Amino acid sequence: MGGGGQQTESSEPAKGGGVGPDGGRGGSAVYTWEEVQKHCHRSDQWLVIDRKVYNITQWAKRHPGGIRVISHFAGEDATDAFVAFHPDPNFVRKFLKPLLIGELAPTEPSQDHGKNAVMVQDFQALRDRVEKEGLLRARPLFFSLYLGHIVLLEALALGLLWVWGTSWSLTLLCSLMLATSQSQAGWLQHDYGHLSVCKTSSWNHVLHKFVIGHLKGASANWWNHRHFQHHAKPNVFSKDPDVNSLHVFVLGDKQPVEYGIKKLKYMPYHHQHQYFFLIGPPLVIPVFFTIQIFQTMFSQRNWVDLAWAMTFYLRFFCCYYPFFGFFGSVALISFVRFLESHWFVWVTQMNHLPMEIDHERHQDWLTMQLSATCNIEQSTFNDWFSGHLNFQIEHHLFPTMPRHNYHMVAPLVRALCEKHGLPYQVKTLQKAIIDVVGSLKKSGDLWLDAYLHK
Fold it and tell me: Are strands 375-376 and 426-427 parallel, antiparallel or unpaired?
């Protein structure tokens, strides 16, 4: 949860502020940032959107995106995050009306924690331009063709077995094709997931369930609630689940030193750049994610997602049981997940793991996303291989933007970064992968130095 300190009693509106019609607080009250920032606890949460102050304490429990992602902005300005996550902000605003308790005092700045007002305004102007130029609108044909090539890969893999049988070479080729289709389906569900945050687009919501459930055997709600936290506060400890390494790794520059000073040694962290190859890429999807997905669906009684996931396994075993039997089919899907996991880990970590990983610093949206992301050079292969997540900067700044428009907004983002002196990092695919290992080694060395000498 955002913020710290002891929970405070409900305080009075800012000096000179209005009061509600019942003589108490109401939508006409005014507040200072100092007061808003006090309400950042699990049982007491306010946030600010477009200078309006909202009490989201009870609403957070019903938030469609999950309680955590909205709670990460408790006590803060959430304007840019609110716009970034909701394809139709006007639709969502009607849910905010009952939560309105006032607004910022006229003497208060629009930004909190001393953020650069000019930089924030320039980014918001860019966002308005992007929307006016239609760069947030998807082309159905693009995604239809993308879905078609995934289905074609699966059909070809099965067709090879029907025509030529189950030799070792054909089984391996079939596994590679299935792992490719699973990886590409992962990038496609990622697209639909971001566009289905607002359920007014019901067709897109169903497509997301179909792709992640029927084509991948996973849970849409599990992915949404996990991944949106990553976008809300990327590379922020306790807020981004992607940097919650469960004591297996130490990440960034600060966590290793903190662990070293406290003499914490859950693993031999100075060797983490080596055991990463044994724990990270091979096990994330077939072990960690698989367990977490089913555990989440059962614990949250998410029977709809469970039903979608079961259609994947039913289809898979119906198709491959005649060739491999039950245990052979289990071995096949396990090997496919093993291959897919390597692909997934390298693509997702090459943009983030070598970047800044830190505790909450209350940065503005533009600075926060740039410090946690980098791009990979554009090429036809890189676009396909990464599901266009080689444009990670643009994706994080505009998470609801369809991937086929990233290259169009990239020059505008780069120009904005140059204006404000912000780093806009672009790497080759090879360097990005090497940097993942290098960052782990650097963090491990920092831990060892602190563990031995501090």
Answer: parallel
Closest CA to 288 of 235, 317, 249, 325: 249
**Two structure tokens written together for 453:** 């000498």
The residues that bridge with 40 in the sheet, in sequence order, are 45
Q: Tokens 């505009």 correspond to what residue? A: 398
Burial class (CB in 10 A: 0-12, 13-18, 19+), 333: buried
219, pLDDT greater than 60:
yes
Domains and CATH numbers, the chain: 1-106 (3.10.120.10)
Would you call 377 helix, strand, or coil by DSSP? coil
Residue 19 has a pLDDT of 36
Spatial CA neighbour of 230 closest among 325, 366, 368? 368
> Six-digit token pair at 231?
């976008």
One-letter identity of residue 67:
I
Q: Alpha-carbon torsion 66, 69, 73, 77, what sign? A: negative
The residue among 47, 75, 77, 45 whose CA lies nearest residue 58 is 45
Output the pLDDT for position 321.
96
- Tokens read off for 454: 């501090």
Mean pLDDT on 315-331: 95
pLDDT for residue 26: 55
Cβ burial, residue 132 (10 Å; 0-12/13-18/19+): exposed
Q: Beta strands 44-49 and 426-427: pairing type?
A: unpaired
Q: How far apart are CA 356 and CA 18, in angstroms?
A: 42
Question: Which of 61-70, 171-180, 368-377 is predicted least confidently?
Answer: 61-70
What's the mean per-residue pLDDT of the chain?
91
- Comparing C-alpha atoms, which of 301, 281, 286 is closest to residue 216? 286
pLDDT of 286 strictly over 80: yes
Token pair for residue 447? 């831990």
pLDDT interval class at 187 (50, 70, 90): very high
Residue 404: which pLDDT band, with cuts at 50, 70 and 90? very high
CA distance 338 to 323: 20
Name the pairing type of β-strands 44-49 and 40-41: antiparallel
Displacement of CA 6 from its chain's centroid (Å): 30
